[in-house]
Amino acid sequence: MTAKPAAAAARATVYGYPRQGANRELKKAVEGYWKGRVTAAALRETAAGLRRSNWQQLAEAGITEIPTGDFSYYDHVLDTSVMVGAVPERHRRAVEADALDGYFAMARGTEDVAPLEMTKWFDTNYHYLVPELGPDTVFTADPGKQVAELKEALALGHTARPVLVGPITYLLLAKPAPGVAADFQPITLLDRLLPVYAEVLAELRAAGAEWVQLDEPALVQDRTPAELNAAARAYRELGALTDRSKVLVASYFGRLGDALQILAASPVEGIGLDFTDSGAANLDDLAAVGGLPGKRLVAGVVNGRNIWINDHQKSLTILGTLLGLADRVDVAASCSLLHVPLDASAERDIDPQVRRWLAFARQKTREISVLARALARGTDAITAELAANRADLASRAGSALTHDPAVRARAGAVTDADGRRSQPYAERTAAQRARLGLPLLPTTTIGSFPQTDELRRARADLRAGRTDTAGYEARIKGEIEEVVSFQEKTGIDVLVHGEPERNDMVQYFAERLTGYLATQHGWVQSYGTRYVRPPVLAGDISRPEPMTVRWTAYAQSLTAKPVKGMLTGPVTMLAWSFVRDDQPLGDTARQVALALRDEVADLEAAGTPVIQVDEPALRETLPLRAADHAEYLAWATESFRLTTGGVRPDTQIHTHMCYAEFGDVVQAIDDLDADVISLEAARSHMQVARELAAHGYPREAGPGVWDIHSPRVPSADEAAGLLRTGLEAIPAERLWVNPDCGLKTRGWTETRASLENLVAAAREVRAGL
Ligand code: GLN
Ligand code: ZN
């Protein structure tokens, strides 16, 4: 960009901000309300106070147009369902009796009414409540929340822009309501939905909105021609309304592709595009459609979902190009800041040098305003900030944390052979059978046993210094003894140690690998009032010492039955962390894989005959566009094979994933070359077993026969029925018997009963073979 100022003063804006407050005040207030300790009035007051302070933070950081309506007690998609009156039949009475309690009933269910289903918001780790729609759905406008929050912000003197989930994204995220044909397509309700959006737009205009933002991230995914037509129609019709504010259609999480031309040709006044690496193609695409003459372009140049400082020089180059392509260019984060923690400066435990590389929501808002200032007044206006930014980037690039020569040399020397087992499955399975001596339909579990209050208390005691390490470890050993003896008594064939020492399947390993950082306050919303603190994969990864061997070996010392070692795989280690953005993900995955490979080797050397490497995130990490799948799956499967490929033929490698639909990754699952895979299958009546069979999956598999998501105990008959269904797809020599997933969220009572039934079912079906 040149030092020449742009014509109109650029605005700095964001699409949304973390809702929880610096001390998770929102979580406390909402949960307090659920428990009856906080009144509705007090909850409302806490929420209003948080909005006020968020807006003030934004304004002070130099954000000149703030978002409203992005705040939520639980979830913004649920808020949208309320806004358009899409309340499921079963919740209607509760909502009519009390709007707030009805809202939470939709989110969480009640004793007799199920909640809305929850699923991941695009490829983030945020979960939304899935709208349930059907041919009988009647939409009605309820703009109350949007209007009230806009008025609050305007009364405080802010320039405010209401943010709504757009109609296309809303419908594309919905699913057929219970009782509605599974092939019903909610997008067919568009004509019914648009008048409701028109009404909301009119109300927002009346309340004083100059601009309204409609979020359409669903348009960065592959869309059918019919869906693209729907988008064209929606924005033609909304654009043609006279009683409305100016409309900004925001896209994020990637390139718009075909939808860009559609929006560019529509009468909306503004378009928001992602110009980070994932949306980089937007730049050329925008030039190809002739830019956005007469429109406002909101340029998402600051990455809204990672936690790293921006590269200002790079952003300025992009912004410079964009100035020639639209009437007006404003600066934003690429997506809502909902997906990052609030404030990096609160991380007092992180080395100050490293802390300078971090940008959470507060830091990002300052970055955005610095860039907007450069757009308005030229780069001379940000000379000091540019120099500081350059210095911080240089410190990161030159640091020993991000560049460990030993790690790099090792990763560079990896060959194809490292990721290949020394024998093909057909040969090594014979060696494994001879070593393990298992019956047909062997029984096992996925790893974790109930994480009891006692275990959590033991960890809290250790942290607080009330117990020393020896005392803590004695408690963990005691737990392992109980878990092993229970499994022996119950007759399980391949035992586990129960993972009592693990607070979380990613965090446990992150705490033991060099290159990972932990945050103290880095909370991000996972769903509702659940917040997580993902570890930060900041540097080159290495493993100073074994991480799990002593616990697995201790369990093995207690029994003659085989004990399975448990590790979290490289893809999941990346997916559930904040990952460095200064090298390709595949390079990072390879480093993690090599560290895990050492752990696998140590487990094997300690006599562990079975090692499971969990990859529950393999499918959820699939890129949003099909065109990007192959590249991802190549490094994802390579990293798994690198983790496991070095073992002897008679060491059995298991993997585990938990989801019901996986048709699109079945080839990748095959490419992992694991000896045994366990999968979630109980609720879908062994659907995955049929999908594996249809693919010709040649190795062993354990489709789950116990849905562990609820405390319900499956009877032996029920489990046997599922096993027989499994046998129709997978031959007895290759079928395993296990639950859907780990048992850490279950209680001991149902765990005991369910596993006893599972073993009884295996015996019964075995006897009939
Ligand atoms: N081994 C882990 C456990 O049993 C797997 C958890 C998961 O798949 N999410 O808890
Ligand atoms: Zn699982």
Automatic annotation (TrEMBL):
One Gene Ontology biological process: methylation
UniProt key word NADP: no
Pathway: Amino-acid biosynthesis; L-methionine biosynthesis via de novo pathway; L-methionine from L-homocysteine (MetE route): step 1/1
Enzyme Commission numbers on file: 2.1.1.14
Residue positions of the active site: H709
Key words, A-Z: Amino-acid biosynthesis, Metal-binding, Methionine biosynthesis, Methyltransferase, Repeat, Transferase, Zinc
Annotated binding of 5-methyltetrahydropteroyltri-L-glutamate, by residue: R24, E25, L26, K27, K120, W576, E620
Origin: domain of life: Bacteria
Pfam families referenced in this protein's UniProt entry, alphabetically: Meth_synt_1, Meth_synt_2
GO function term, MF aspect, one: 5-methyltetrahydropteroyltriglutamate-homocysteine S-methyltransferase activity
Binding annotation for Zn(2+): H656, C658, E680, C741
Cited SUPFAM superfamilies: UROD/MetE-like
Cofactor(s) of this protein: Zn(2+)
Family the entry assigns: Belongs to the vitamin-B12 independent methionine synthase family.
Protein name per its UniProtKB record: 5-methyltetrahydropteroyltriglutamate--homocysteine methyltransferase
Organism phylogeny: Bacteria, Bacillati, Actinomycetota, Actinomycetes, Kitasatosporales
